[in-house]
Design a protein that fits this description.
Elements lengths: L10 E5 L3 H13 L3 E5 L2 H11 L3 E7 L7 H11 L4 E6 L3 H7 L6 E5 L4 H12 L1
Parallel strand pairs: 1-2, 1-3, 3-4, 4-5
């Protein structure tokens, strides 16, 4: 699969409580041409979404985070914008997420460690 580079017009809200993982993902997405708004936990993601709502095209969330987990965070964000596209990246087994019903809501799930080529392809697909 060839790698596609964006022109910097699409913005992704990325919530991850692990500093190293957040930094690595930020660099990877920037290299692919996306603008990134980082958040350190679920509550910060909601705050960032409220502040930057008009700019955000996609949310990428860790599932297990302090203050609000990824599932709770997405529920809050979808109260504000029901059609927001979302990706979960987590070491949490898919069965837990499927039990919550989020796959039916159009949420994509990636298991950590995330394959960046697959993630880049899915982001491109979601953002059209």
């Amino acid at each position: 699969m060839s790698v596609y580079y964006e022109d910097g017009t699409k913005t992704i809200l990325y919530a991850e409580d692990d500093d190293l993982e957040r930094g690595l993902m930020a660099k990877a997405l920037a290299r692919l041409g996306y603008r990134l708004i980082p958040a350190v936990d679920g509550q910060d993601a909601i705050t960032q979404f409220l502040t930057n709502r008009e700019e955000i095209h996609l949310v990428v969330l860790d599932v297990i985070m302090p203050k609000k987990n990824g599932l709770e965070t997405l529920d809050e964000i979808r109260k504000l914008q029901p059609d927001i596209k979302a990706i979960f990246c987590s070491a949490c087994p898919e069965a837990v997420l499927q039990a919550h019903g989020d796959q039916e809501k159009g949420v994509v799930i990636f298991t950590k460690p995330v394959n960046m080529n697959l993630l880049a392809g899915k982001i491109r697909e979601l953002l059209g």
